[in-house]
Amino acid sequence: SSGINAEYGYIKLLQMTIDKTLKLILTDTLSIQDISAKHSTCLSNNFSLLLDQLSKVRSDDLPEDSDSWVRFKLVIGLMDDSLVKIVENWENGTLSRYFRSSEVQHLVRALFQNTDKNAALRRRITGDVL
Fold first, then answer.
1. Among candidates 110, 98, 88, 114, which has minimal Cα distance to 40?
2. Percent of the chain with pLDDT over 90
3. What 3 state SS string does 36-96 have?
């Protein structure tokens, strides 16, 4: 009985630690003011490595569909996607289910140059679902 409780406690602690770590990284990433293409690629690669390593320590009791896990994977995609693809993913609900419009707009401003065309595309990222 105490072995079961210890295992449950370990899994719960691991789950909470992973969740909190991903949330902290997400918060910091979504607040960056300017991300160059080089740094975007570097962040994307390192975030992918982190998820790969975290996947190795996760068990069946630690689902990969938690909000922080999904949001983290989506941010990796955002770092690699074109602005047109990001807007499409916002409009089709892929991003709007997990992010506020202000979060995506801020990240888009950090990733892409502020041109009239980009500003017009960015304005299409509106209407929070959350």
1. 110
2. 60
3. CHHHHHHHHHHHHHHHHHHHHHCCCCCCCCCHHHHHHHHHHHHHHCCHHHHHHHHHCCCCC
